[in-house]
Amino acid sequence: MVKRQKKNDNTIKKFNELYISTRKKYIKQKGGQYSTFNKYEHSSALTLSDWMLELHLNGSETYGVFNANTVNKFITFDVDYANDQPMARWATLKLIDVLESEFNIRSKDIHVSFSGSKGYHVDLFFDEPIKADDAVAFYQRVIATADLPSNNIEFRPTYKQAVKLPLGIHQKTGARCWFVDRNTLEPIESLDYLDGVEPMDHSLILDALIDLTPEQEAEFKQIKERTDVNVTVVSESQAFEKVTEILTAGQLLRSNTRHETTVLLATFCNSQGYEQEDAIGIIMETLWNTPREYFSKNSTPEFWQSEAERIVKYAYERNYQLGNADRPITIYRSEMLAVLNVGTFRQKQVAYAMLVTSKRYGSTFYLTLATAMKMTGASKPTVSNAIKKLVEVGFIEYVRKREVDIGRSRDLGRPLYKPNQYRILIEKPKSDEKSIEVLPADNLVDVAYLLCDSSDIKGAVGRREYDNRWSR
């Protein structure tokens, strides 16, 4: 039997490579209506064949495709302003500009086609399929960044909503859905457009979900540089003033800084040893407390939540640090004597951890149990009891204790508490008293002997504790 030769073999090959994730589910346009064919549900339905794609290119039939349910091998931004062609052009050009300038997508990787009516399809093709949820999250972030209405620029394809393939004939208007020049939106009247198209690196999409834009990255780099251990104390103080201001205000400090603030707080929380859930809680509390006008029109709490979860996960996996955790801090003799007099050795360790944390992050600070356990080597019950003791003896006080996060508790269907906040209550040291600079590797005992005499230590600790923990 002689094999029939198709006229558009190369374009059909590109359709298969770039667009088609499943042949068993597709749509066919007839007039202005679309019919869905699903072989998964109806065994009698035909699969989408290369000959159907040939008919599509010939203009006699028009087809569209779904994604593969859980993954997308491409994204289409479906720009549709039904009765406003100028607006559709403006929105499409703005979308292209945002993809290039804000998300580092190369111009040659952005492919635009006429929808056949009054809109456009903006396509991005990936060298490897990405999770459908990640594709949607990327779309949401682009739309929010571009400040464009999602009801006029829809995400395609999903497993329930297909997208019409380009280069065919719109069966209602009779217009050919040519690809267009991405700068002028003038049609490129060639069925061979896809021949030279190669898919882009899919990791750019995944990175865009959690990385900074170039402007934000530059600003964040400045923050990290200002907190480098080799710069001046004044510069470090100025840098962490921003974190302190955000936490004190409990909201964004200026409009359109949601992403920057999320990254900053995620990094701060990782630096200080919070659990990821606590970090997400701090970020969401800050965003919920921010006036709505600080956000773009299409920015939603659901999107904030997904971004917070994604950015926190990324910051923790990459171990983002503000640079503050390793810088030397100054401890004074009177402060060490206050630590020595709080109670048991473990309680002294926790008190020292509290003191160090307050030096690094401000007079009002967070210290999670996980961080305190890491700093002291003590168990969770021991740390919990030590904190209670430190409150009893007046070394610290609670600024916030077991406060319910109402919004997130309602979302989760269970009580969720905000991280506790503390404040050191001991007297401020005198400027002329003995002091030393200490690093994270310096432990309580070593620092105590550098600041205090043996008689001071013996007078503050019990005989057994001294013999077991302090004698040299």
Automatic annotation (TrEMBL):
Which Gene3D superfamilies does the UniProt record give? DNA primase, PRIM domain
What start-end ranges are recorded for coiled-coil regions in this protein? none
Domain TOTE conflict system primase intervals? 21-203
Q: Which InterPro entries match?
A: TOTE_primase (IPR054347), WH_DNA-bd_sf (IPR036390)
Query: Which one Pfam family would you cite for this protein?
Result: AEP-TOTE
SUPFAM superfamilies of this UniProt entry?
A: Prim-pol domain, Winged helix' DNA-binding domain
Enumerate the transmembrane spans: none
Output this protein's name: TOTE conflict system primase domain-containing protein
Organism encoding this protein = Ureibacillus galli
